[in-house]
C-alpha cells in the first residue's frame, strides 16, 4: 500500500481484515516499525473518533504524532493560478511540500462543502495534497469517502458474522442537518468487496451516486428492505441529486427495536438518539456501535503499518 485515500488502495480486503484482527490481539508488537517516524494529522473539520483512534494507532506503532486544526490556524489556497489577495495565507503547493519535510505520512480530514457538487467530487483538498506532498496520504474522511470507517466496519462485520453471506441493509435515517455522503459511499463500496447480500433503503430523492451504487439493490420500502436482515447499518445523508438538501425528516425512518428485530445494529457515530435511532436499540444487546468505534484504531493501525512497511 502506497497511500490510503480510497478503497481501491486495498489489494486484498479479506487479508487486510484478517491482519487487523490479528493485530488487535497484540497491538504493540510492531512498536519499532514507527520509531523516528512522524504522522502529521491535518483537520479541516472536527473529529472525536478519527482523531483519537488514528493517533492511538500511530502511537501503537511507535510513531510520533503532530496534529493541526488547519482552518482555525492557517487558511490555505487550493485554486491554481489564483491572485491571493484575499484571506488565505499560503498555497497548498508550498504547504504540502513543507509539511512533507516534517512528516513520513500525512493524514487529512476535509469534508464536503455540500454547496459545490463539482468541487466536492473533485476532492480538491485531498487531491491537492496528493499532488504536491512527497509522503503517503491517508484519508480521514474526505468529500466523498471515509475509507478508514469502512475498514473498521468490515472488521466489525467479520467479527460478528456467523454466516458465510449475511444480509446487510444500509438504511437512511432522518437528521436535522445536511450531512455528507462519504460514510454511506464507502460503506456501500466496502460491502461490494465482501461476500454479503447488500441492499440500500432510503426515501425517494436520496439516491446515492450511480458510480457508488452500481448494481446494488435499492428498496424504497424500509420494512421490505429490513426483512431477514443480519446487519442493519443506519446513516443519514443529504440528497445527492438536489445536492446537499434536506428533503425529508420523516420520523418513521428512525430505526427502532421493533424494526431491527434480531439483526445487529451498526452506525459510525456520532449519532443523534431518538432522531436517527431510538434508545432501546443503542442500549440493547444487538448494538455494535462501540465495537465499531474500537475497531477504528485497528483499521488505522493496519493501514499505517502497511504504509510504513512500503516506505
Ligand atoms: N465516525 C467518525 O468518523 O467519527 P468522528 O467524526 O468523531 O471522527
UniProtKB/TrEMBL annotation:
<keyword id="KW-0808">Transferase</keyword>
<dbReference type="GO" id="GO:0019240">
    <property type="term" value="P:citrulline biosynthetic process"/>
</dbReference>
<feature type="binding site">
    <location>
        <position position="74"/>
    </location>
    <ligand>
        <name>carbamoyl phosphate</name>
    </ligand>
</feature>
<feature type="domain" description="Aspartate/ornithine carbamoyltransferase carbamoyl-P binding">
    <location>
        <begin position="8"/>
        <end position="159"/>
    </location>
</feature>
<comment type="function">
    <text>Catalyzes the transfer of the carbamoyl group from carbamoyl phosphate to the delta-amino group of N(2)-succinyl-L-ornithine to produce N(2)-succinyl-L-citrulline. Is essential for arginine biosynthesis.</text>
</comment>
<feature type="binding site">
    <location>
        <position position="272"/>
    </location>
    <ligand>
        <name>N(2)-succinyl-L-ornithine</name>
    </ligand>
</feature>
<dbReference type="Pfam" id="PF00185">
    <property type="entry name" value="OTCace"/>
</dbReference>
<keyword id="KW-0055">Arginine biosynthesis</keyword>
<dbReference type="GO" id="GO:0004585">
    <property type="term" value="F:ornithine carbamoyltransferase activity"/>
</dbReference>
<dbReference type="InterPro" id="IPR036901">
    <property type="entry name" value="Asp/Orn_carbamoylTrfase_sf"/>
</dbReference>
<feature type="binding site" description="in other chain">
    <location>
        <begin position="268"/>
        <end position="269"/>
    </location>
    <ligand>
        <name>carbamoyl phosphate</name>
    </ligand>
</feature>
<feature type="binding site" description="in other chain">
    <location>
        <position position="109"/>
    </location>
    <ligand>
        <name>carbamoyl phosphate</name>
    </ligand>
</feature>
<dbReference type="GO" id="GO:0042450">
    <property type="term" value="P:L-arginine biosynthetic process via ornithine"/>
</dbReference>
<feature type="binding site" description="in other chain">
    <location>
        <begin position="146"/>
        <end position="149"/>
    </location>
    <ligand>
        <name>carbamoyl phosphate</name>
    </ligand>
</feature>
<feature type="binding site">
    <location>
        <position position="235"/>
    </location>
    <ligand>
        <name>N(2)-succinyl-L-ornithine</name>
    </ligand>
</feature>
<feature type="binding site" description="in other chain">
    <location>
        <position position="296"/>
    </location>
    <ligand>
        <name>carbamoyl phosphate</name>
    </ligand>
</feature>
<dbReference type="Pfam" id="PF02729">
    <property type="entry name" value="OTCace_N"/>
</dbReference>
<comment type="pathway">
    <text>Amino-acid biosynthesis; L-arginine biosynthesis.</text>
</comment>
<comment type="subunit">
    <text>Homotrimer.</text>
</comment>
<dbReference type="InterPro" id="IPR006131">
    <property type="entry name" value="Asp_carbamoyltransf_Asp/Orn-bd"/>
</dbReference>
<keyword id="KW-0028">Amino-acid biosynthesis</keyword>
<comment type="similarity">
    <text>Belongs to the aspartate/ornithine carbamoyltransferase superfamily. SOTCase family.</text>
</comment>
<dbReference type="InterPro" id="IPR006130">
    <property type="entry name" value="Asp/Orn_carbamoylTrfase"/>
</dbReference>
<feature type="binding site">
    <location>
        <position position="175"/>
    </location>
    <ligand>
        <name>N(2)-succinyl-L-ornithine</name>
    </ligand>
</feature>
<dbReference type="InterPro" id="IPR043696">
    <property type="entry name" value="ArgF'-like"/>
</dbReference>
<dbReference type="GO" id="GO:0016597">
    <property type="term" value="F:amino acid binding"/>
</dbReference>
<dbReference type="InterPro" id="IPR006132">
    <property type="entry name" value="Asp/Orn_carbamoyltranf_P-bd"/>
</dbReference>
<protein>
    <recommendedName>
        <fullName>N-succinylornithine carbamoyltransferase</fullName>
        <ecNumber>2.1.3.11</ecNumber>
    </recommendedName>
</protein>
<feature type="binding site">
    <location>
        <position position="141"/>
    </location>
    <ligand>
        <name>N(2)-succinyl-L-ornithine</name>
    </ligand>
</feature>
<feature type="domain" description="Aspartate/ornithine carbamoyltransferase Asp/Orn-binding">
    <location>
        <begin position="183"/>
        <end position="304"/>
    </location>
</feature>
<feature type="binding site" description="in other chain">
    <location>
        <begin position="47"/>
        <end position="50"/>
    </location>
    <ligand>
        <name>carbamoyl phosphate</name>
    </ligand>
</feature>
Amino acid at each position: 500500500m502506497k497511500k490510503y485515500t480510497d478503497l481501491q488502495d486495498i489489494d486484498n480486503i479479506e487479508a487486510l481484515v484478517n491482519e487487523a484482527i490479528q493485530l488487535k490481539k497484540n497491538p504493540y508488537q510492531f512498536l519499532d516499525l514507527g520509531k523516528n517516524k512522524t504522522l502529521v494529522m491535518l483537520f479541516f473539520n472536527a473529529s472525536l473518533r478519527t482523531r483519537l483512534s488514528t493517533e492511538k494507532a500511530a502511537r501503537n506503532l511507535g510513531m510520533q504524532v503532530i496534529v493541526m486544526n488547519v482552518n482555525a490556524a492557517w487558511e490555505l489556497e487550493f485554486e491554481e493560478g489564483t491572485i491571493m489577495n484575499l484571506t488565505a495565507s499560503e498555497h497548498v503547493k508550498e504547504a504540502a511540500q513543507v509539511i512533507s519535510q516534517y512528516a513520513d505520512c500525512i493524514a487529512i480530514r476535509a469534508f464536503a462543502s455540500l454547496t459545490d457538487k463539482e468541487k466536492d467530487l473533485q476532492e480538491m483538498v485531498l487531491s491537492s495534497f496528493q499532488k504536491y506532498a512527497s509522503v503517503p496520504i491517508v484519508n480521514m474522511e474526505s468529500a466523498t469517502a471515509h475509507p478508514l470507517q469502512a475498514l473498521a466496519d468490515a472488521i466489525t462485520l467479520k467479527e460478528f458474522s456467523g454466516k458465510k453471506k449475511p444480509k446487510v441493509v444500509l438504511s437512511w435515517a432522518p437528521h436535522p442537518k445536511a450531512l455528507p455522503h462519504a460514510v454511506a459511499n464507502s460503506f456501500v463500496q466496502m460491502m461490494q468487496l465482501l461476500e454479503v447480500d447488500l441492499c440500500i433503503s432510503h426515501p425517494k430523492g436520496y439516491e446515492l451516486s450511480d458510480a457508488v451504487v452500481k448494481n446494488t439493490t435499492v428498496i424504497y420500502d424500509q420494512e421490505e428492505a429490513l426483512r431477514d436482515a443480519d446487519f442493519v447499518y443506519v446513516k443519514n445523508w443529504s440528497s445527492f441529486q438536489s445536492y446537499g438538501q434536506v428533503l425529508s425528516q420523516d420520523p418513521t425512518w428512525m430505526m427502532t427495536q421493533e424494526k431491527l428485530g434480531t439483526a445487529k445494529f451498526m452506525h459510525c457515530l456520532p449519532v443523534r438518539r431518538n432522531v436517527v435511532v431510538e434508545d432501546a436499540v443503542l442500549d440493547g444487546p444487538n448494538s455494535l456501535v462501540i465495537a465499531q468505534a474500537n475497531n477504528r484504531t485497528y483499521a488505522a493501525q493496519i493501514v499505517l503499518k502497511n504504509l510504513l512497511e512500503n516506505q
